[in-house]
Design goal:
- By secondary structure, the chain is an alpha/beta fold.
- About 45% of the residues lie in helices and about 10% in strands.
- Strands 1, 2, 3, 4, 5 and 9 form a 6-stranded parallel beta sheet that branches. Strands 6-7-8 form a 3-stranded parallel beta sheet, covered by helices on one side.
- The chain starts with a helix and ends with a helix.
Length: about 290
């Protein structure tokens, strides 16, 4: 991301955070306190050279937040900001470099697995490329998807598993039968090879449509995840949950704003942009909207 655009996002997020904090204080004074909401973070890989940065972020969460599992349901406890941690793509670097830091702090996390790529290098376009060019070639990175043995070795007391489809396609571009295979069959196969119940689905590239959501429900998932940076209410009945992307190059202020839900404004900005473009009848794909 260009530096100027990144700095603009930080500035807007900071203003959003301050204004929201003032509003909440005023509501508290008026005896109308609002319930705390959950911020769900998502990562991809954590390469060996990034472990120090990841460890630093986990130390920050240890001091300033309460990390809870994505499966948490009910009213959030008062006090520290509640955060959940997820990883898309099930890269081996997560087990090698992120897991030890999670264990150190007893932080739960959920890993979303592209089932057809187990034990292989990722053959799909990485998120940044796919958002700009859905037909982009595979990633030029030294990552490897975990094998079934790797998944079985993950500590069940801390790490939950969810499906990230079979082959990691943009789901809304598929015909109904192919979408059902990617969503339902991946759940069944992941459950069989891991010996765990699979109740959560993460849309590749955050790409979905109404049909995909219906297919997820029919397949038996309890929740599905997008990549819109929206906070969620675990006591509510939301089936689709937003998540906030974290980069290991994030500055301390960026990370603080992200885990406090201050990037939520960008999802509203995307909706407004989409509505504006729709008004002028220019078709906009889900992937394009997510890129904003």
């Amino acid at each position: 991301m260009p530096r100027a655009k990144r700095e603009l996002k930080i500035a807007i997020s900071l203003v959003y955070y301050v204004l929201r904090s003032i509003l909440r204080c005023l509501l508290n004074l008026a005896g109308r306190s609002s319930a705390q909401r959950l911020t769900i973070l998502y990562y991809h890989g954590v390469l060996s050279g990034e472990r120090t940065a990841f460890a630093r972020q986990m130390e920050t969460l240890h001091r300033a937040a309460r990390v809870i599992p994505t499966s948490y349901r009910g009213k959030l406890p008062p006090g520290k900001k509640c955060v959940a941690i997820t990883f898309d793509d099930a890269f081996t670097s997560v087990a090698e470099n992120a897991l030890p830091e999670l264990v150190k702090h007893s932080f739960p996390a959920t890993i979303f697995v592209p089932v057809a790529w187990l034990g292989r290098p990722p053959g799909w376009a990485m998120e940044e490329d796919a958002l700009a060019r859905p037909s982009a070639a595979g990633p030029k990175v030294s990552e490897l998807v975990m094998s079934s043995d790797d998944l079985k070795a993950l500590p069940a007391s801390l790490v939950s598993l969810g499906s990230h489809s079979m082959t990691h396609p943009p789901i809304s571009a598929l015909d109904p039968e192919r979408a059902r295979t990617e969503i339902a069959d991946s759940r069944q196969q992941l459950a069989e090879l891991s010996g765990r119940e699979i109740l959560e689905f993460s849309f590749p590239y955050g790409d979905y449509n109404a049909s995909a959501l219906a297919t997820c429900r029919a397949a038996g998932y309890q929740v599905a995840y997008s990549i819109k940076p929206q906070e969620v209410d675990p006591a509510g009945s939301e089936f689709l949950r937003g998540r906030t992307k974290v980069d290991l190059s994030d500055s301390p202020i960026e990370f603080y704003l992200k885990f406090n839900g201050a990037y939520e404004w960008s999802s509203y900005a995307s909706l407004l942009m989409n509505a504006f473009r729709w008004a002028f009848r220019r078709p906009v794909s889900k992937i394009e909207v997510q890129a904003r």
